[in-house]
Specification:
about 375 residues, alpha/beta, TIM Barrel, 6-stranded parallel β-sheet, two-stranded parallel sheet, 9 helices
Length: about 375
């Protein structure tokens, strides 16, 4: 990423100054005041199953379990209530991107390489919201999302009697990068409207390919309306339609959350209909909702003030615009102030926080997690 202008550094300095001025003992990682809702914070997490392998070898005396090396907190400096950057992409295009909401294929490849080199590792939205972040010690989780179900994000083509992602689409590039940097992780969350990813195969085949390859599918409404202009029934019908589309295409699959079209939230008294509702006689639930712009509380589930129904995202581009800081801005910010990032201790069962920032840890949200204050 190219370095930003003096204007960006001025903004960064103002952000930091506002953070430090907001309370007598500054809370690390605060950029703006959150909007609060009454929605509960999900704290459940499913344990990983233990594999059982068949064996024909004769029984032997069990060896004593090897003790894992203790975590060197002073060296790793984990901060598991810091910023989790959620990046919002739309289409990935060949040539020059026509708008800030598109990304050139070459730029997208550069984005992935930059994230890798800057110490980020992929994490799914599902793992974030279930408080089950499994990023290696010393690394920062990052979430990649795509909106709208555009064919230049993902499109299947026929090849060799099967279906594969079309070259130079967003998912094809992520698969290419997975082969190059397997330790970066895999997966993204794709928020869809009606008739997602036009191309070969039907909708069930398209969504099944994604889920089978480690990607998640979420709700972005049927027609991409401005939700602030809709009444309760219209909101529920927009969200309920896509919930049914995903569930009918993928029996047994649980749609992964919601992304506000245009970043536009419903009127305050109607926002509960994003979390749950009824349409065509079928209920739906969304465990989280993503907006556009970083004017909400950082997205760590155990952070004081965390609001799952108003989670911030940064746009996958390099030029910030008013009220919507982009990825390029935040990459520069984290290089200068790395302590603001969520840094993993490598253990999904513990939540580690430096003692001077213990006040940022919401101990009531921990569930079965063990707090570590060092």
């Amino acid at each position: 990423m190219k370095s930003h202008s003096v204007r960006h550094k001025t903004i960064l300095a103002l952000m930091l100054a506002l953070t430090l001025a907001s309370c007598a003992a500054p809370r690390r990682g605060e950029i703006a005041q959150p909007e609060h809702t009454s929605e509960p914070i999900p704290t459940t997490s499913a344990p990983l199953p233990s594999p059982t392998l068949p064996s024909t070898a004769p029984p032997t005396e069990p060896e004593p379990a090897a003790e894992s090396a203790p975590i060197d907190y002073a060296a790793i400096k984990p901060y598991e209530v810091g910023h989790i950057m959620i990046i919002m992409y739309h289409g990935v295009v060949t040539g020059e991107a026509p708008s800030k909401y598109q990304r050139g294929a070459g730029d997208f490849r550069e984005d992935l390489e930059t994230l890798y080199n800057d110490g980020f590792r992929l994490c799914s939205m599902k793992d974030v919201i279930e408080n089950n972040i499994r990023v290696p010690a010393g690394y920062a989780p990052v979430v990649i999302t795509f909106d709208d179900g555009d064919p230049n994000t993902f499109r299947l083509i026929e090849s060799g009697g099967g279906l594969i992602p079309a070259p130079e689409t967003g998912i094809a590039i992520m698969e290419e990068f997975r082969g190059k940097r397997p330790d970066f992780g895999a997966g993204a969350t794709l928020f869809i409207n009606d008739d997602p990813f036009p191309g070969a195969g039907d909708v069930p085949e398209r969504l099944k390919w994604l889920v089978d390859h480690g990607y998640d599918v979420g709700n972005h409404t049927k027609t991409h309306p401005e939700l602030s202009s809709l009444d309760a029934r219209e909101i529920m019908d927009e969200i309920g339609y896509i919930d049914r589309l995903i569930r009918d295409a993928l029996p047994g699959y649980e749609p992964v959350g919601f992304a506000f079209p245009f970043g536009d939230r419903p009127k305050e008294e109607l926002r509960g209909y994003v979390a749950s509702g009824v349409s065509e006689g079928r209920t739906y639930q969304c465990a989280f909702a993503l907006k556009e712009g970083y004017n909400a509380m950082p997205s760590a589930p155990n952070r004081v003030g965390f609001d799952p129904m108003n989670m911030p995202r940064v746009r996958g581009s390099s030029t910030p615009i008013e009220n919507a800081y982009d990825m390029g801005f935040f990459l520069e910010f984290y290089r200068e102030r790395p302590e603001f990032r969520y840094i993993s201790d490598g253990d999904p069962d513990t939540i580690a926080v430096p003692a001077e920032y213990e006040e940022n840890l919401d101990k009531a949200s921990l569930g079965d997690k063990t707090p570590v204050v060092y």
